[in-house]
Amino acid sequence: MALVRHALALCAAGSLLGLGANALTPRPAPLGHEVAAAADAPGAACQIQGLQAAIPRISVEEATPLCVACSALFVDARSSAEYEAGHITGALHLAPGEAVDPVLWRLGVYKTVVVYDRDPNCSVADQVAKKLLEHGVQDVRVLTGAWPAWTAARAPNAAGSCASCGPPATAAKGSP
Amino acid sequence: MSRSLARAGLVLASRLALAAIFLYAAATKVPDLAAFATDVANYRLVPAALVPWAAAAVVGIEIVVGLALLTGFYARAAALVAAGMLVVFIAGLSQALLRGIDLRCGCFGGDEPADWWTVVRDLFMLVPAGIVLALGRARRPAAEASSPSAGGAHLGRISTRY
Known about the structure:
The complex is a heterodimer.
Chain A: H1 2-24, E1 57-58, H2 60-68, E2 72-76, H3 80-85, E3 92-93, H4 104-107, E4 112-116, H5 124-134, E5 139-143, H6 146-152, E6 169-170
Parallel strand pairs in A: 1-5, 2-3, 2-4, 3-6, 4-5
Chain B: H1 2-29, H2 33-42, H3 51-71, H4 75-98, H5 116-135, H6 142-146, H7 148-153
């Protein structure tokens, strides 16, 4: 019992020491502020160093009819906050760090899967698309011009015209 | 006699090895605790508001555990904390890998990715912690050791300094 008591005392002393070290370090952890996972933090997703994979592209003009006809599933690779703020109607949210398996059943229903990113220079959509290809999804494309091009073209977004494709789903809501 | 010497040597080696690992791990994180907080967040185990506090606490506990193992004071208690931390690290890494979360390990600063080898490495680190816990002897208080009557009467009695 004394062993456990001493172990708890070491933990308490260590925690206090850690807070002291945090006050002295040049780059402290921001106490009192939330620190979200990189994939969930607005604007942080593109900081993930990645690849510009050789994934086929699809333009907004080509993708819009697929959305309206519900013949493609759109995958939003941006942060959760950005997805919540607005996304292509019916798009599935899948950040690069999230597991594909729970949503694989949903991806397999569509002939084409279109992944889009927060800005055209971001490689996160490529990372997600590569992951989908590795999981056996056949026709995966990355949207040219990303989210800004989609909104600039006034293509269907969360209030758009292809809501009949079904409600938006996040990666967490994976079970059929 | 030689058996007890070998045992003492094994415990000492385990203590010093574990101390070196924990102190090195803390030393690599202290200069950039903000980056370590981001690594902790990426495991998605701790609420976002608690992440910076958890990051600071982990590093502080690593320092205290490392110093305790190095000096031998409360070494068994330190080994218990080290083992507990390693179990939490192994669980955290495993759940992230099983969920397909792609992240930096955050173990020794830098950009080391988390993979199953990281889990195996942590499992190996449990061995010296277990040795110190199982075979480590607690120190007898100095007063007790120097008193012939007390020392004789309580030979082998375990002191409170674990």
